[in-house]
Amino acid sequence: MVEEKPARTLLSRLAPWIRVAVTAGILGFLAGKVNWAQLGQRFLSADPAGLTAALFLTLASILLCGVRFWFLLRLQNIQLPLFRALHLTFVGFFFNLFLIGSTGGDAIRLYYLIRWFPDRKARSALAILLDRVFGVAVLFGLALALLPATASRLAQDPTFAPLAQAIPWLGPTGAALLVLGFVIPGLLPNLPLPAKLPGRTVVLDLLHGLRDTMHGGWTTVATVLVAIAVHLFSFGAATLLARSLGLPIDYALAGLILLLVFSAAALPISVSGHGVREGVMIFLFTHLGISQEAESALAYSLLIYGLGLFWGLFGGLAYLTLKSPGKK
Fold first, then answer.
1. Does residue 115 lie in a domain region?
2. Which of these, 319, 322, 303, 297, lies nearest to 58 by C-alpha position?
3. Of the four, 57, 98, 104, 183, which is 20 to 30 A from 273 by CA?
4. What is the pLDDT of residues 113-166, one digit of tens each?
5. Cα–Cα distance measured from residue 145 to residue 187, given in angstroms and rounded to the nearest whole number
6. pLDDT tens across 235-280, in order?
7. Residue 224 resides in a domain
8. Does 83 have pLDDT greater than 60?
């Protein structure tokens, strides 16, 4: 007897349309506040050399995302060639451009992994999840490391003054969480799980997968180093973009801005963060003393998105050349 799928709630059915409405509302509000001629002038005044350099730093960051993904797959004993991992990474970036939410590309990657490795479903899902976790954890870690360099700027605004005051203990707290993140997975496979626990075999496989990831020797070290390099390159790209626009944003401040903007854009309230990303950028420019002009913030936000969009479109070509899921 085939079990019926549980009926979707009204909220789950309306959620995509709510996101579309929120996105349209924010973008419509911002559109009414912007001087479009001035915004166009901001784009035209950008230094082409800086934009080009930022574009290729973004490419390096995306390629390193693929290498990080490849290492995580190896830690799960999934032997996918490096070229195929890079290929799949670009495909994921392409689908993130238009699927609702910021994890559409992850779903596509998981779909192909399961078709290629049907006996490694749990480990494939874990590799995708850990790819996200490593990316976010390292982003926060680097932002904490760069915070002291932005302390004086943060302290000048009442909104960010509490963050500036918290800097002395944020570093040690982050370091302690990092240590726990490596220690706890080693203990998880020894948990006394009930013998009749539904899906016990899968749960144990996942727990062993976590341990293998965090205690994978040089492969784990390489994964962490590559994850760091991903964001160092993206911070560099954001810094070059700021210079090309003549904005007073240094490397440390660019890292902090990307952390706050990406965190807000990841909230499941809009379509791929559109609108939220631009609104937060305007807020940060105002309160961090960068510029009071909304056009400067919008130009910077749209160019940052444009870097990913440019290479994401190449992911569409990668998708067209990706072999059938049944073929390796």
1. yes
2. 303
3. 57
4. 999 999 888 899 999 999 988 888 888 888 888 888 888 888 888 888 888 888
5. 28
6. 999 999 999 999 999 999 999 999 888 887 777 666 666 778 888 8
7. yes
8. yes
Domain of residue 295: give its range: 46-321
Q: Is 217 left (phi over 0), alpha (psi -120 to 50) or beta?
A: left
Nearest to 305 by CA among 2, 43, 33, 38: 43
The CB-side HSE value for 131 (13 A sphere, CA atoms) comes to 29
323: left (phi over 0), alpha (psi -120 to 50) or beta: beta
Task: Check residue 64 and give its pLDDT.
Answer: 96
Domains identified in the chain, total number: 1
The single-letter code of the amino acid at 204 is L
Query: 240, exposed or middle or buried, with CB in 10 Å at 0-12, 13-18, 19+?
Result: buried
Of residues 146 and 48, more confidently modeled: 48
Whether 327 contacts 80, CB under 8 Å? no
CA dist 201 and 254 (Å) reads: 45
Residue 26 lies in a domain: no
Is the sign of the CA dihedral 89, 94, 99, 100 positive or negative?
positive
Confidence of residue 101 (pLDDT cuts 50, 70, 90): low
Residue 59 in tokens: 């490419």
